[in-house]
Amino acid sequence: MVLLAILPVTSIARDDLQGALEARAKAESAGAIHRAAGSWAAAGKLLAKAEKAAEKGRSDKAREAAAQSRALYLEAELEAIRHLYLDETAALIAEAMKQKADKHAPRSLARAKALLKQADEALVADRYDTAAAERLTAVANDHARQALYITSLAKKVRQKELTVETIILDWESNLQQTAAAAKLTADLAADHRETFASIDEVLRQLQSENKR
Fold first, then answer.
1. Which run of H or of E encompasses 118?
2. 59-98 and 37-55 are packed helices; what angle lies between their axes, rounded to 10 degrees?
3. What are the Cα distances from residue 209, in Å, to 61, 67, 195?
4. Could you say which DSSP state residue 184 is in?
5. Cβ distance 96 to 109 under 8 Å?
6. How does pLDDT run across 97-125, given as a tens digit for each residue?
């Protein structure tokens, strides 16, 4: 890497080179060398071109190549950040699609896709504030896994390895155990939402007591 301080170029060209180097450092910190290898390599070639032009005193050429290099490094940085925070969710959704979740669990799958899109938009809007993207992908992962689980059950029912009755009875058994842990009785003949509401109320009371 050339020393900007001794390059025979204008201060404006030197600023452009410095900008490219700073963008390179950010991209490297984000893991662009591996997560955005193509953009990283292309940006490096342009930076080398800018440095060569600067050494020859060709300020205009140096500025142009440095600006292009900076833009590519910033692109590589964003690409790397997107891979870091979105790849797990994207992989879960891809697996769900492969398993035909769009047929068996369309609502869960659609929700996972929508949340992934929101997470991506959040990173594009501000790549350095990843909190929103992390929250969104966490929920998206749950929906994607739910889609996979529902799809698995649907396939077992279709293949007669499982019956709908068995699924419901197992679910009701879990509900009864949860209600019992909350010192409640689950009325399976009534609307299950009432039991869930009662459990939720017990949990809220416990949280309130723990805060005192």
1. helix 106-125
2. 180
3. 68, 59, 21
4. -
5. yes
6. 999 999 999 999 999 999 999 999 999 99
